[in-house]
Amino acid sequence: MNRHSFAASLALAIVAVLGLTGPVAAQVQVPFYGRLVGVDTTTAFNPPLVSVQVKATGNATQLGTFTFTELAMVNINTRMGNGTFLFTAANGDTVFGTASGLATLTAPNVLTIVENAIVMGGTGRFAGATGGFTVTRYKNTVTGVTAGSFTGSLSSPGAGN
Q1: What is the CATH number of the domain that holds 100?
Q2: β-strand pairing of 94-107 with 110-122
Q3: Do residues 154 and 29 lie in contact, with contact meaning Cβ atoms separated by under 8 Å?
């Protein structure tokens, strides 16, 4: 009898604890898309790796006017790269994460770069943000000028982030 009482008490305690924690709220994802224009600077690092820095400005849903910085390492033999990105909205709120991509020479002196990005967080109204997006941009390999667009989703600003 004592053993059954203990088991019942333990089961009730577990149910009570689970009931207090409640379900984890899923973050609502909203469309996230925009355009950017800037400069993509490549610096020799340790062959075949190069360091790439993208500094751009643009406009996007959820962010409005923004600045964008990306830092990546690219293998020039495979044209594959990985790095981090940071969007900064006009009011200082940020969205940040990681990106990986591939560059393809599509015309003389033009690279088409497709990157898949994962949102890891943010600040201000984007604190705790999640999401992902795909960037397609073009880079003039002579001048470094880059321009492109991105589309994906982002957790709703201020919705429990």
Answers
A1: 2.40.350
A2: antiparallel
A3: yes
Please write the tens of the pLDDT for every residue from 15-59.
Answer: 333 333 333 344 799 999 999 999 999 999 999 999 999 999 999
* Structural domain total, the chain: 1
Position 140 in a domain: yes
| pTM score above 0.85 | no
41: containing domain:
27-155
Alpha carbon 66 to chain centroid, angstroms: 14
Q: Which long-range contacts (CB under 8 A, 24 or more apart) does 139-144 make?
A: 139/40, 139/103, 139/110, 139/111, 139/113, 140/109, 140/110, 141/109, 141/110, 141/111, 142/109, 144/39, 144/40, 144/41, 144/42
Q: Token pair of 132, please?
A: 């992902």
Report the C-alpha gap between 86 and 147 in whole angstroms: 16
Q: Which residue has the tokens 């305690």?
A: 13
What CA–CA distances, in Å, run from 26 to 2, 105, 119, 135? Answer: 41, 40, 15, 25
